[in-house]
Specification:
17-stranded mixed β-sheet, Jelly Rolls, alpha+beta
Length: 379
Amino acid sequence: MDNHFFYQLTERYLEGTATAKERQLVEAFYEQLSSEDAAIPEEMKRRVKAAMHKHIQAEIARVPAPVHRIYNWRKIAGSAAIVFALAAGGLFFLKQPSKKERATARLIKSVQEDKTPGGNKAILTLGNGATIMLDSAHNGILATQGNANISKLDSGRLAYTSMNRKPGGIVFNTLSTPRGGQYQLLLPDGTRVWLDAASSIRYPTVFAGNTREVEVTGQVYFEVVHNASHPFSVLAGGVEISDIGTYFNVNTYADEPSEKITLVQGRIAVKDKETEWILKPGEQAEQKNGLLDLKKGVDIAAVMAWKNGQFQLRSTDFATLMRQISRWYDVDISYEGPVPDRKFGGSINRNVNLSRLLEVLHDYGIETKLESKKLIIMN
């Protein structure tokens, strides 16, 4: 049993952020603990009381006069006791488990198999093929490529800085995120880039010549520093996007039915071999079955929800939602029956555990089962 896991669990319980299943687990442990007080050693009781006293004093100190806060001392005592009982060696799991304890053990397993949301994870591939795992790399300068220093500025951001010396040959780097990852990039010209899960961008470490060109896969958002004499272009699948001073989102996931380029601000030109569109804010170029079409009046909030930490659902079909969940939580989706014919609306924070989303699906009448990295839709 992982004591750190139970510390986090009881903290979420006290903060009111625990899932229904997590709350059930904490309360099940408290019932066992309170019903077996006589079995707790005196040293354990002393430590539990000390923990309770410290927590209560901390809570009281946070309340400004004359506000009076009502506490559920039973829950505070129970959660503190659980943490210390587990830290002392799992006292209540040493004897033959009762029926209630076996049920609690099954509940523990289901909670521990929950999937945490994605985070700042990415792999940087240098020009010589060497790779750097950015989520575990230190802050500061990571490498020198061509005429630029590569620095990890803070959690989830990579930057390129020119060394102001004579340029040599052009060196290309690739930044890629796994499923369950996201990352930000500051290109040599100051253009800001956000990568969603299972995405990549290939770019030169220094923009030389008259053009600035990058290539992407997956979903990537750009805030381009406009320079009319050095146009910025993005190659995404079968289309080319040219900046005319703009912020835009590119969705080119291979498992999506179409590629979509959505303009947030400014103007862009989107073209394939046969068609070209000049987009205005709120418009979207969509390439499907080899045809490039233009859509107007697009819901920008829904398109940009991933960057803003949300699942924004606008009559979203079940298969589309499952693809988003698969990429963000790094799970494989399988169906025991046909794909449910349901549509969803609303907004869900992307920073919650997968179990929260599964609770929402349950409210819609959809049953699921999570087995390691496999999410089974049982309907």
